[in-house]
Amino acid sequence: MSMFDLSPATPLVLRADQPLLDEAQLAAAAFLARYSGRTLESYRTDLRQFFQWADNVGLAPLEATRPHIELYRAWMDERGLAASTVDRRLSTICGYYRFAHIDGRITANPAQYVRRPRVHPTTQRGMDRGELASFLYTAERVSPMHAALAVLLGLNGLRVSEACDANVENLGFERGHRTLQIVGKGNKPAGVPLVPRTARTLDLAIGERTHGPILIRHDGRRLDARTAYRWVRSVGNRAGLERTHPHMLRAAFIMAALDAGVPLRDVQIAARHADPRTTTIYDRRRQNYDRHAAYAVRRLRHQRRSPTAGAAIRRPGPTIRYPTPISSRNTVGVRRTGCTVPRTYVPRKVTSAWQTGTRNGPHTPLLEAA
Fold first, then answer.
1. How much is the pLDDT for 36?
2. I need a surface site. Which of 28, 45, 110, 155 has the fewest CB within 10 A?
3. Crossing angle for the helix pair 37-56 and 83-102, nearest 10 degrees?
4. CB of 254 closer than 8 Å to CB of 271
5. Domain count of the chain?
6. Is the domain of 133 the same as that of 268?
């Protein structure tokens, strides 16, 4: 029996001649004990994959060195796994060996200096405000329960697990606001204010119920994440949106808040991100071309153009020194030994002899006036 096969309902029978777990599995259990929920499942899957690879090549996990883990990384690359998947699995392995080193099971962390793949920011475009409004409008016409899921994800930025676990008794009032108490990522409690549209939609979905889950399926059971994915995909197809999933609505909430000018710190608090760099990722995914620097440069060019055709353009710039003396008949208050003319000077009409090139031969300034 492996520690990866254990569940809370599995009876534990300890025998002196057959230990339940070896040292590597005890180290894995000590590492996984720090996590819960989807994070625990993800890390458990990553360690199970690594232990299976080590068993296939005849390697004891606690005897691995850095070259062994580099070979495991190359094996994942050969299978064509995405760079983000390889990076996450290596991060899990590094954490496993780090705590094994802390617990004194190994002398050093062999995964500390393993090369990680470069993970580039995603180029996937998120929902804009128009698409989010279309999704909410379509969900309201499917059913009140679909609409309740849509507003919790799109107007309050809840994660799908948080929305599915919300209960009717967690609704309340605080300082004049309708609120919903949820349990966020990492079992962290949080209070979420509900805007009037969200509150009205939840009231329609709850009806006369006073306890139990807010979101329920057609059979009366609590809505689960898998069913929520199907609901969001179905509403997205009706709204004419392709490949929609619940996290796209949460991302649309964050990007809409940034578009509205909400400070990054306030958006981070609303999204319940531990690191502001996570919120910045959604800022790059906005692809807000309306604020691109190219348009600002283009507007500046238009501002510097003359409003009347043929008029002189007045803009600051360096002066031009003409080497040939200019007659006082064509200028006023200018020394005969030379003339300092602004760069923006553009003559309207050529009348004098020196401008036509007939006085003292052709006349060519050092820098033509713009």
1. 81
2. 45
3. 90
4. yes
5. 3
6. yes
Instruction: Locate 94 and state its tokens.
Output: 């590094």
Judge if 81 and 224 occupy the same domain.
no
Please name the residue that has the structure tokens 């710190």. Answer: 265
- The number of residues making up the chain comes to 370
Is residue 268 one of the residues assigned to a domain? yes
Q: Rounded to the nearest 10 degrees, what angle do helices 37-56 and 66-78 cross at?
A: 100
The per-residue pLDDT for range 289-310, each reduced to its tens digit, is 666 777 777 777 666 655 554 4
Q: What integer pLDDT is reported at residue 74 of this predicted model?
A: 93
Looking at the structure, do residues 263 and 182 belong to the same domain, yes or no?
yes
Q: Domain check: are 12 and 95 in the same one?
A: yes
The pTM of this model reads 0.63
What percentage of the chain reaches a pLDDT higher than 70? Answer: 72
More confident residue, 318 or 239: 239
Name the residue range of residue 77's domain: 3-102
* H-type alpha helices, the chain: 23-32, 37-56, 66-78, 83-102, 129-140, 144-154, 160-165, 196-206, 225-238, 246-259, 264-271, 276-285, 293-304, 353-356
